[in-house]
């Protein structure tokens, strides 16, 4: 499968033993925020905006039967087309008076792990900026995407995996 496309996937018929959390803006998408057209409902195809190495990782986790979770500060309506296109199992997103940023991402990930009785040590998270550190700290397999200096320090100390930064693209 071409890692540049977000092909719908079929999930193996089993109970997930792990989760993979994907920060959306700047990590899964090679842009810092969802295109404006997606904030009011379905927008144009996102094909050229996918960050290919992260999208390939998402497809790999899905093929292994892991719970695929999108994490975004955007609203549920804005991220719904992305979640549908990817076949995500869950979305952790902003709600009224509950932004999905910083420590909120970590709390939400921890709650989802508890809800699904998953061991954090078996789970993964992909993120691109220091504000995502609480999310990365909740799993046993954090992956730093890009060159954020704070995350790179943590990656060196914790022997975390790394993926390259996305190539900036126009929306």
Q: Keywords for this structure?
A:
disordered N terminus, 171 residues, 5 helices, 15% strand, alpha/beta, 6-stranded parallel β-sheet, 30% helix, globular
Give a concise summary.
By secondary structure, this protein is of the alpha/beta class. It is built from 5 helices and 6 strands; from the N terminus they run E-H-E-H-E-H-E-H-E-H-E.
Main sheet overview: 6 strands, parallel
The arrangement of helices and strands along the chain is EHEHEHEHEHE
The residue fraction in helices comes out at 25-40%
Radius of gyration: 15 Å
The fraction of residues assigned to DSSP E strands is 5-15%
Adjacency order of strands in the biggest sheet: 3-2-1-4-5-6
**Low-confidence runs (pLDDT<50, min 5 residues)?**
1-5, 38-43
Query: Which descriptor suits the 3D outline?
Result: globular
In total, the number of strands is 6
Number of H/I helices: 5
What is the distance, rounded to the nearest whole angstrom, between the alpha carbons of the first and last residues?
24 Å
